[in-house]
Design goal:
two-stranded antiparallel ribbon; heme binding; mainly alpha; Cytochrome Bc1 Complex, Chain D, domain 2; 328 residues
C-alpha cells in the first residue's frame, strides 16, 4: 500500500524537477532580446577609475553640505535624496530652493546620472562636474552669490582645507570651485544601481516573473524602445515632447540652450531605471502616477491609446528596473 502511494509521489517530484530545471526557449529568446536592445548596466561609471577614496569621501561630505547654500538650509541631497531608500529625487513636482521659491522643472534622479550623455533636461551641462557647478550659484536653488563666497566658506571651515588637500595632494591651492565640483562628481559616480532586470539579462531567468516578462514584451511591442533603449533605457538622446500628439507646455527645452527653432520642446529622454521610485513624472512634474505617465507617453510620443491591460503590463515590467537595495 505504501509503495503504491510513494511511487506516484516520486514520479510527480521527478517530473517537477525536470519541468523546472531551466528556462523555456521563450524566456531564453527574451533574455537575448533584453541583452541586445538594453544590456546590463556596467558596474562602474566612466571616469571612476581615477577616483580615490579621499576624493569620493570629500565629495560625499560636500553633497550633504548645507553651507553651500546662502542661508545654510539646503544641500545637493535636499533635491536629490540618496539616503536610505532615497532614489536620488525629492518626489516633488518641482523643488523648492533655499528661500522657498520653486524651480520650473522636475528634479531628475542623480542615480546612474554619470552614464547619461549630457546632464539636465536641456543638456546644458556636458558631464557631472559641469552639472555640479550650477545649482550652488543658481539664485532660485542654493543662491550663493559667487564662487568666491563659496570658497571663503570652505576655507573658513575647520575640516575642509585638510580634506581638499588629501583629495588633491598634488595641488598647491586645492580648495577651488573646480575641485569642489570634481569631488561631488566623484561621489555621484558611486551611485550605480543594480536591478532584477540586470540579473535577468546576465542569465538569471528566475530574476523576473512571468508577468514581468510579459510586460517587457508589451514594452517592446508598443515601441517604447524607440526612445528608451541602451542600458539606461534612455538618457542617450533628445526627443521632442509631443512627437506625434502635442504636449502642452511653455517650456521650450533644448531651444533655450541652442536657440535653434528646430530644438523647441526637445528634452533629454529620461532613463527608466528606478522609474517606479522617482515620480512624479516628466520635465514639469505634472504626472503623478507611472500608469498615467505610460499612457501619456504612448499617446504623445507614439500616437497610441494603450489599453488598461497593456498599461498595467508595462508598469509591471518597469518595476524590475528599480535598484534592489531601494525597491520596497
Amino acid at each position: 500500500m505504501l509503495r503504491k502511494i510513494l511511487t506516484p509521489l516520486f514520479i510527480s517530484i521527478l517530473l517537477a524537477t525536470f519541468t523546472y530545471c531551466g528556462p523555456t526557449q521563450e524566456t531564453k529568446d527574451l533574455q537575448g532580446k533584453a541583452k541586445q536592445i538594453i544590456g546590463a548596466l556596467p558596474e562602474k561609471m566612466p571616469g571612476s577609475e581615477n577616483d580615490t577614496a579621499e576624493l569620493i569621501s570629500l565629495g560625499k561630505k560636500l553633497y550633504f553640505e548645507k553651507k553651500l547654500s546662502l542661508n545654510e538650509t539646503q544641500s545637493c541631497n535636499s533635491c536629490h535624496n540618496v539616503e536610505g531608500k532615497g532614489a536620488g529625487v525629492d518626489n516633488l513636482p518641482t523643488s523648492p530652493g533655499a528661500f522657498g521659491k520653486n524651480g520650473d522643472r522636475n528634479s531628475p534622479t542623480v542615480l546612474n546620472a554619470g552614464f547619461h550623455f549630457v546632464q539636465f533636461w536641456d543638456g546644458r551641462a556636458a558631464d557631472l562636474k559641469a552639472q555640479a557647478k550650477g545649482p550652488i550659484l543658481n539664485p532660485v536653488e542654493m543662491a550663493m552669490p559667487s564662487e568666491k563666497e563659496v570658497l571663503q566658506r570652505l576655507n573658513a571651515d575647520a575640516e575642509y582645507p585638510a580634506l581638499f588637500a588629501k583629495a588633491y595632494p598634488n595641488e598647491k591651492t586645492p580648495v577651488t570651485y573646480e575641485n569642489l565640483a570634481g569631488a561631488i562628481a566623484a561621489f555621484e559616480r558611486t551611485l550605480v544601481t543594480f536591478s532584477r532586470f540586470d540579473d535577468f539579462i546576465n542569465g538569471d531567468y528566475k530574476a523576473i516573473s512571468q508577468a514581468e516578462q510579459e510586460g517587457f514584451k508589451s514594452f517592446m511591442a508598443a515601441g517604447c524602445t524607440s526612445c528608451h533603449s541602451g542600458n539606461l533605457l534612455g538618457g542617450n538622446s533628445f526627443r521632442k515632447m509631443g512627437q506625434v500628439n502635442e504636449y502642452k507646455t511653455n517650456d521650450l527645452g533644448l531651444y533655450n540652450v541652442t536657440k535653434k527653432a528646430e530644438d523647441k520642446y526637445f528634452f533629454k529622454v529620461p532613463s527608466l531605471r528606478n522609474i517606479a521610485l522617482t515620480g512624479p513624472y516628466f520635465h514639469d512634474g505634472q504626472v503623478k502616477t507611472l500608469e498615467e505617465a505610460v499612457k501619456k507617453m504612448a499617446y504623445h510620443q507614439l500616437g497610441m491609446n494603450l489599453s488598461e491591460d497593456e498599461t498595467k503590463k508595462i508598469v509591471t515590467f518597469l518595476g524590475t528596473l528599480s535598484d534592489k537595495n531601494r525597491a520596497n
